[in-house]
Amino acid sequence: MNERFHVLKFGGSSLQDPERVSRVLGIVEAAPGPTAVVVSAAGPTTDLLIEAAARAGDGEDHLANGLVEQVQSLVVGNAEAVLGKGPALDDTTPQLEALYGNLRKLLYGVGLLREYTPQTLDLIQSFGERSSALLMAAFLKARGSLARFVDARDWLVTDARFGRALVDWPATAQNLAERADEWREALTVHTGYLGRSSDGRTTTLGRNGSDYTATLLARGLGAEDVTIWTDVSGVMTADPGIVPDAYPLARLSYMEALELATFGAKMFHPRTMIPLIEAGVPLRIRNTLTPDAEGTLVDETGHRDPGKPTSVTSLENVALIDIQVRRLDARPRMAERIQRSLEQKDISVWLSTQSAHGQALSVVVPVEHASRAQEAIELELRAELAAKEVRPLEVWMPTTLLTLVAEAMGRSVNVAGRMFAALGAVGVNVRTIGQSASSRSISCIVDADETSIAVQAVHDAFNFAHQTVSLLVLGKGTVGSELLEQVASQAETLRAAHDIDLRLIGLADQRRLTFEPEGVPPSDWEGRLAAAPEAELGDHGPVTPAVLDRLRRLPVPVLVDVTAADGLEGLYQEAFERGIHVVAANKKPLTIDVPARNALLESARSHYRFYAYETTVGASLPVIETLKDLVRTGDRVQLIEGSFSGTLGYLTWKLMQRKPLAEAVREAKALGYTEPQPQDDLSGLDAARKALILARELGLQIELSDVELEPLVPEKILAETDLEAFYAGLEAHQPELDAQLDAYEREGLVLRYLARVDPKAAANGGKVMKVGPMAVTADHPATRLRATESFVAFTTDRYAEYPLIVQGAGAGGAVTAAGVLADVLRIAQTLRGR
β-strand 283-287 against 296-299: which pairing, if any? Predict the structure, then answer.
């Protein structure tokens, strides 16, 4: 029994320079058994030949000849580098010169006529594949192989449809059957892409034509397998230019490959797959640069997990044409008529959808055919348009056809739901939806400028790879530096256990910005920021709209604000408008005037962005989310009371231990509990802002000026801007404090700095919010607080007798940073759907 053939196909990128040619020769020589090799034109040869034909047609003979020189130089350069001086090169050079001499004569004729036909262009393009195959056979002979050049035009019979000829399979199969035995005796090298009509004219097979040649050859020879050697390591889960984490699939089925080909995957063409399907020949796609990698196997079975999605494809630069029917009785066979009108104009239709009631139809065509398609449809529907039974056509372009492919999609639960939930979560507008009749794919049209976000979101939703989260951090103070340390220390754990890749892509202070899309090493952020030049400052420092535009193009972009800066609400809104999420420990944007604060939150909602601000109250304590849950579940809050400032909690705790206030403040500052200017903490304004944030979560439309605020010490002491003068003022105030503390001890009371939010107070003419030093009884929850502990007590209809209490560390860079990181991770996991 004869051993079966192996068919190897090499693309132009694998033959474009001597180093790659040497790799190809090693792969071919290592192939077992009888082998047939199919080659494409080397490197940019085909493009140069097409350009040469165009220049000759314009009468620009000198430009056409210059392009031929480039092609010949590439080919001869490879020949000289691989063969070296000697008999092999001497034998090959005259053949190349004769080949390119004929090409120049052909182009001279084109120049005389000042035109070239599709037939002429096919003949001109053939010189690329012919020179590649001729050289490859010569290279193999020079290395001792019994190699033979085969012009595929001698066995591949087609019709005369130049540019994308159709194969006459019975005639082709007969030719292959007649030659199979003699080809077993030598390693044959075939031209890809080329055929010949029955009357002897050269034709080409169109897109992926050399791959098609290889699969036709495999079918006719009854080959054991086909291997397409290219410059990628297999079929990718998405376009790696859009999704950096895309990776090659191990296996897929013929039908999945056919579906990918239908929806624009550059790796396949439907015609390439048909010979394999009909003959049951497996196909493997491998990388010439990494020949030991297994690549992707395409066969009848496909992946062993039939429910696993295969790939996300993105066919860009398409146009969506919408047809809206006004009357139900005005639509007989309308979809069929539209399809036929486009076929008559030779316009490719990538997707066609129709509503259940038939009043809405849409077609998706290449952008370059949009005008012709619109004209063809309007001509077909001219009577309906004139009678206003059909609305004027709407054309959306450029758009992108996004498709998710999986063998068993029709038998898997909630695939479509997960896909469109992922798109909705990142605010991508879906213009139309279609599912293939085979139930192996689901497609939609999105706007071109949302392609990157949409592909990344769907890719992440189906766990193809780690979810990448792109962080631009504002601020490098206590909280910021702690956050960066936590990101660095948790990176590997998050990738391994949660499939989340946190990537610090930028860091900004008041004057500098470092922005590195591939990631700033968290361990070297100080050096990177220090080395960055002073940035051009905008309304919000170095983070300008141009910086946000760069951020929005990255996977899951998140702006992280760990500053206490004023006026950043404008930056947040610009981020939301660009599809960027915001995580903030900065309280000030939430305590601006009520209309502006409401507009900020509405901006996040309307743009489908997350605005996470849990750490604005209670550091990493779940205060805001607890309150939101109470409100969402219909509970009515009667009173909120708490110690919202870990700093002031620490100071009052120390005062009750009878430590002098000046000493306590110095100690708190050294421990990192206070702001750089401790006066800001003792004013109580920070605690008031936190209380205001909670009050507004209840729906109370009150301003910061409505808060009854009493600082821990008199205003005149806080007015001192000089730090030492401020401490002196505290020391002078100590006797008054001691007298007050003595009185509290006699009455069994404890000093704490508290805030109260009483929604009912306004009805009685009182203040809804009070913030200041308060003496509480021994059974009050605040008496249990130690050091920087904070607590919040929610008294509600459901928690009337025993308030719901949230208590824990409420100050310090580490706990606040942990809360910020938790907010970031919640966003990532929500977008991922788990």
Answer: antiparallel
Q: 148 by DSSP, 3-state: which?
A: strand
* d(C-alpha 658, C-alpha 671), whole Å: 19
Does residue 105 have an active-site annotation? no
Burial class (CB in 10 A: 0-12, 13-18, 19+), 503: buried
Q: 697 with 629: CB under 8 angstroms?
A: no
Render pLDDT for 15-28 as a digit per residue (tens, 0 to 9): 888 999 999 999 99
* Closest C-alpha among 629, 628, 665, 619 to residue 808: 619
CA distances from 225 to 5, 9, 221, 254, 282 (A): 8, 11, 10, 13, 5
Catalytic hit among 690, 716, 767, 770: 690
CA nearest to 150, candidates 164, 139, 167, 136: 136
Residue 410 has pLDDT above 60, yes or no: no
Average pLDDT taken over every residue of the chain: 89
Partner residues linked to 430 by β-bridges? 446
Cα–Cα distance for residue pair 167/61, rounded to 1 Å: 34
Q: Which of 544, 565, 353, 515 shows the shortest CA–CA distance to 444?
A: 353
pTM listed for this prediction: 0.69
φ/ψ of 568, rounded to 5, equals: -80, -5
Residue 28 burial (CB count, 10 A)? 21
> Dihedral (C-alpha) 574, 578, 584, 587: value to the nearest 10 degrees?
30
For residues 128 and 42, is the Cβ–Cβ distance under 8 A? yes
Two tokens, residue 182: 């003699």
Q: Is 93 exposed, middle or buried (0-12, 13-18, 19+ CB in 10 A)?
A: middle
* DSSP-assigned letters across all residues of 483-516: HHHHHHHHHHHHHHHH-EEEEEEEEE-SSBEEE-
pLDDT tens, 604-622?
999 889 999 999 998 889 9
Q: Are the C-beta atoms of residues 833 and 426 closer than 8 Å to each other?
A: no
List CB contacts of 546: < 8 A, sequence separation 6 or more. none
